[in-house]
Queue: 2 jobs
Job 1
Amino acid sequence: MRALVAGEVGEPNDVLRLESRPVPTPEAGQALIRVKATPIHASDLHVLRGRYGFSPEFPTVGGHMECVGRIEALGPGTEGLKIGERVVAVAVPAVPGPRVAGTWQEYLVADIHTLLPVPDRLSDSSACQLAVNPLTALLLVARELDVQPGEWLLQTAAGSTVGRLVIQLARHLGIRTINVVRRRDAVEEIKAFGGDEVICTEDEDLLQRVTEIAGPAGVRKATDCVAGPVGAQVSQALAPGGEVVVYGALSTHRQTDPAALTIPLQARSVIYETKVVRGFWLNRWFGTASPTDAMRALSEVRSLVADQVLSIPQGQPFPLERFAEAIAFAETPAHGAKPLLVLEDGRDRGDE
């Protein structure tokens, strides 16, 4: 089979190579998955560059998030799933937790408790993007912050994939959103998408606008995917006792100095108004959630997507051999669609 392997830490197009590897054999409690489609997330590229929250052992097969495929074989005595069943493989390494196989290969072995059956009516594009961004949106809104109907939710990076999913979920749950964007031309787009209010940091004062929108009661719950000065302003804009959950740092996307990855909080605001700023990382959530709880949350996401409450943007497919183009596409600013590596059956290549 073919696998996209990074020999060492470095720039993805410098360290990735297509290799021929034996098809792995599942053990008890495992399944062999024939991969059909797998996305290239920004975090996948950060892992290869050594800039993410965990580091795999190199050489490593790329792709440490998710994929969709069909069960090709089951390990000895393995029950609960069937050969030929279509599944999403959740390949997010739990922290703490065991190593997991990368998804950028034609076949992979996975523990069955990480496999979510998906109906055929979900496209490969939607199914292979089910387990990371939609799950993150659900966990942030419904679990981490437990936002209630009628409450305001303030979020940065509203135009991102997670930001748009939060807007959709909020409308479904009766939650009002204040959406922060950095470009004026994104304002009408977010409003048309369903955002209740939009603040453009290019020409508006975030703190002033939040006060104007929310009134005396203010906003008590927020999510931030930007960090830096914008993240600090979000904290400052919250009402006393408010909480912001930080789940990304887009403002430092190309930053290589860890000392520069900061959120310059206003100490007086945090202390005297007893505000909370805390992090969320999907890998650590998987490390603390039980397999039952994780599968329950994933099943809820599957239902929301299947019922079209959450709409996942159509990905841009690339054959595995065109991985360099796919990575370049992923790195293009405002590229829109998520690049997907689309794989074919590699058993007939004589490489088992």
Job 2
Amino acid sequence: MKLSTLVTNLDIKEINGDLNFNIKGIYHNSREIKRDFLFICIKGFSFDGHNFIDEAINRGAVALVVEKKISPRPGITIIRVNDSRKALAILANQFYDFPSRKLKLFGVTGTNGKTTITYMLRAIFQEAGFKTGLLGTAQNIVGNNINSSKMTTMESIDLQKTLKKMVEQKNDYVVMEVSSHALQLSRVEGCDFNVAIFTNISKEHFEIHKNFSNYLEAKKKLFLSLNKSKKENSKKFAIINIDEKYSKDFIDCNKVNLMTYGIEKGAEIRAKKIKMDLKSSSFIVETPVGETEIFLNFNGKYNIYNALAAMATAITQDIPLNIISRAFYKFYGAPGRYKLLEYGQKYTII
């Protein structure tokens, strides 16, 4: 791709050099740079990419995106921006031809429940006959490839590359966890979501947010990005746990279709007649399209909330209640989450 095309959507402060290069790849780690690559200099928490410019050039970089003013390098194009992390995401979208626009992309955010909800959604969509990819804390599932994950939400360049593979493999849906860190660090910048799901929020994960107010604002960014998504407005939905103390903050920033779920308050998707034992749980769920009974192969009120979030999302996609119920009956939980281990012992192992 021509460099001039690649930087079309960047907010550029300064350009020094030729934009006629044919760029064969982009990356932010100097060790991964190859011939005719664009190197994005990001100031990280431990390392500053600006300190590795010469290494990147020696490996074949022909252009740089920087935040700092740097001395000219002969034959190297230098593009200066305000925010190189955001620039990386914008460039990644452009380079991989905006793959999220060709998928039904669902993002789940919240302190707890993200992993389980993504696996529940994948189970439901697969039961309905849809090819579904998954990106999250435990695993990344792309077609028949299941790989362990290094972070909840991968870096923007890796995310767009992965979404491109999902397009090529003709996935119908992609369900992904969207962490507050990812939202704060622009990893999902440029992703065009169809659905955003809010689970819950508590006073945790202040590593980069410093305080709860910043943490809350970071979480809301997923819903603000949903408002701007280029997907058809009538097909965009915000799915919100109305029982949560801060649900109003998310509802107030939402400008697309809203679907609420809960147990305590008057939600559109609401559980009643809940029964739980050590191994399982069941409940009746009220929805805009009727009632049905749901059986889960695990217990916990929090898992009922997770199931309600997945149900609300599936209903926005016109998945019939009988298919949703059948998918839950076959679902035994997400990797690394609540699970009973049965080895014939006389005691319970969780």
